[in-house]
Specification:
single chain; 457 residues; alpha/beta; Rossmann fold; GMP Synthetase, Chain A, domain 3; 2 domains; 12-stranded mixed beta sheet; 4-stranded mixed beta sheet; binds zinc ion
Amino acid sequence: MSHDSLHYLDIDTRDPAEYLAALNVLRWEKLQKQIRYVWGNEDYYRKRFLEAGVQSPDDIRTLDDFRRLPAFIDKARHRDSQDASLERYGHPLGLHLTCAPEKAIHLAATSGTTGTPTFYVFSRKDQEITYKVLGRMFQVAGIRPGDTTFHAFGLCLWLAGVTYVQALEAYGARPVALGAEAGVPKILRYIELTHPRVLFATPSMVNQLIERAPGEIGKPASALGIEIIYCTGEPGGSQPVFRKRVREAFGAQVFDATGGAWHNGTITCDSENAHGMHYMAEDYCFRYDLIDPVSKQPLELADGLEGEAIHTGLEYEASPAFRNATGDILRLHVGECPGCGHFGVRMEIIGRADDMLAIKGVKVYPAAIQKVAHSFLPKLSGELRIRLNAPPPGVTPPLRLAVEAGEGTPESEWSTIADALEQRVREILSFRPVVTVLPFGSLPRSGAKTKLIEIVA
Ligand SMILES: [Zn+2]
């Protein structure tokens, strides 16, 4: 990896506070224009300003004024806005569409696993900036113009689908856009046929390719010649166990990325353990305008801060994210990356705002509990359930945690492992759970998005 590829900003300081202050200047410069731009949208955004007591764009005089505004949109309101524009104008681009409908030339969508999909709308300019941001991420991953890249993400409107394929073409790396829908056997055969240097796939697809390569094509994944694996779409790509497995099985470097929506973009470096994701779009969006998940008040941005992320595109044209409540709880790292040494902002998604548990005043996210449990692999299988007596967030202690023994962990060790896990959770998350170890295979597997919380009477 070329470290130079992480330098896309002209901020010359290695002091975290100074660095953030310089970013705030950059943000405010662009926001003044963007505030006026979305104010022009009478159907949706101007209404939100007026509700917040803002009578004119001139009322917002500083970045702090902007950060004190409430969230203007979230997934549910986005969906309502689409329904309303469909009824009123016959298109689903949303009442928050801020440009003429004919300027909206590209669409992507969320996977729509829960309810109607929400659309990401791109004007030509939005698309060009998206290619630029994704191009920076491709460069960090060591992808070179001229490379053959194999695209095994889903192609059905997903952001990592056609949007990525087009961005790869704009970058000059030739995508073989077969897509996840083709299925594992065909993907393996086409990889053999096209000999890509880079594979784009979700962690679960990567795992399946490793497991099924010998049976389907008579050779291990390591014989495919893939040098770079670029993951997104699921949380697993940053996990040390996954990264180690991929390095061993493919002999490839692993990168974990998020982004594509409203100019967002983050990617890990290729270090052994991912140390959060490097933020690659400081000049185009404010993705970590962090607020307190309960009081919804802005928090002062600093190294180590955790909070709920509000996302605003700084110059997005079509149906922009403007004070969009993402529901993500992020942890910021500002400073030198322990993996690659680059100085800048990194972030980790540590949970969802609606998943938060409050245990005697301590805020905890299920994903954080899962992360601690995963440090016990392979003694534990990694499957777990948080068992609550009543719906979250309030939890009456002790929190009960059911985990599964690893395949081959003798029952005689279970109680020692339970004690150790209780102790580790207490050290890291400041509460002590009651851990029960269950036999391997006893918790149902239902795919990547298994709910970690169970309400038991
Ligand atoms: Zn790094």
